[in-house]
Amino acid sequence: MNKKSTPIISFIALLLFSLGIFGCNQASSTSSTSTPNQPNPASSQIGSSVAFECGKESQFALCVVSSDGGDPKTVAKDIVTSKTLGYQWLAFAGPSINKSGIIAYVCNDGDDEICVVKSDGTGAKQLTQNDADDDYPVINNDGWIAYLCEKSRSARESICLIKADGTGFKMLAENAAIEGPISMNSARQIVYVCRDVYEIDTEICLTDSNGKAITRLTNNDQDDDLPKINDAGKIIYNCHSDASVYYLCLVNADGKGYESLSQATISNWDHVLNNNGQIAFISSDAKIVVMRPNDAKRVEIADPNRSICCLSLSNSGLVIYNCTSGICSAQSDGSNIKKLAGPAGQNHSVAP
């Protein structure tokens, strides 16, 4: 697999930052421990739990910490992270946690596979087992996991679905020109970056859980990438007015309601959208901004220790972000800034 079909983003960001041939064979459970090491966190947060990459560079692990703070707990070892893939500052290989505390992440048995574990460290399970790589898992609140998959190492990438208990495997958008990361909502609408075979620029596509209704949502001569979808079917993505200026755009899952948020000039490093319509993004001047579409009010997270990478946003408006001391959090109104885990952070991924 091309590690990892990542959308073409600004060169600055690049500098910074199963089943047998899909015959659903459940593999052995992964181990867990309770001794946290905390560098290089990548978080995905819902409710009171934040899942993030932790550990030392030679042995990454998966940790969980309360959004109220406290001591992190290691719930899985030897996970695959963006850093082990060689993308130190890409935000797309992190864990994904749903409201029930089930975490989907990338593990490795010689190839990248999809594993799950509960936030208390129980229920560890490897869901896929094949000779190709499975990556970029996202889990929704019903326990469905969407991820990037291949039939073989020489095949083009597809999107696969599987439940957290290992049942319900299905391949969607088979052998399409798909690029990760992907995003999925509770209705199992999945958005991803796509392109025609002879195209250079990237577009935004959507498919449903049957894989039959594939919709191309954008069609222009600029790159559109990093789509995120919420439960209302609203999609936010990077749209480019030219080669050097990046904005946020919105579109509905039916392809209607297109809107360019020209007031949201972004860095192209990360943005998130919650189910209440709040948007958080990293601005072109490296500030964390929270806003709503069609609202002139913008809140900046005034943390001098903020990093230039990676955001998570809960439905209640809690912003999780990277800071120089690790993972930090703040309310969407800019209040209650605090450190959750450290020391150095990266790679956030918000659950659907």
Brief overview:
The chain is mainly β and 352 residues long.
Structural write-up:
It is a single chain. Mean pLDDT is about 75; it is low at about 1-40, about 85-90 and about 350. The two termini are about 25 Å apart. The chain is about 0% helix and about 45% strand. The protein is mostly beta strands and about 350 residues long.
Question: Could you outline the blueprint of secondary structure elements for this entry?
Answer:
Layout: H1 11-16, E1 44-46, E2 49-56, E3 59-66, E4 73-77, E5 96-97, E6 102-108, E7 112-118, E8 125-126, E9 135-139, E10 144-149, E11 158-163, E12 170-172, E13 178-184, E14 190-194, E15 203-207, E16 215-216, E17 224-229, E18 234-240, E19 246-252, E20 259-273, E21 279-283, E22 288-291, E23 298-300, E24 306-313, E25 318-323, E26 326-331, E27 338-341
Antiparallel strand pairs: 1-2, 2-3, 3-4, 5-6, 6-7, 7-8, 9-10, 10-11, 11-12, 13-14, 14-15, 15-16, 17-18, 18-19, 19-20, 20-21, 21-22, 22-23, 24-25, 25-26, 26-27
Essential attributes:
2% helix, four-stranded antiparallel sheet, 352 residues, single chain, disordered C terminus, disordered N terminus, mainly beta, seven-stranded antiparallel sheet, 1 helix
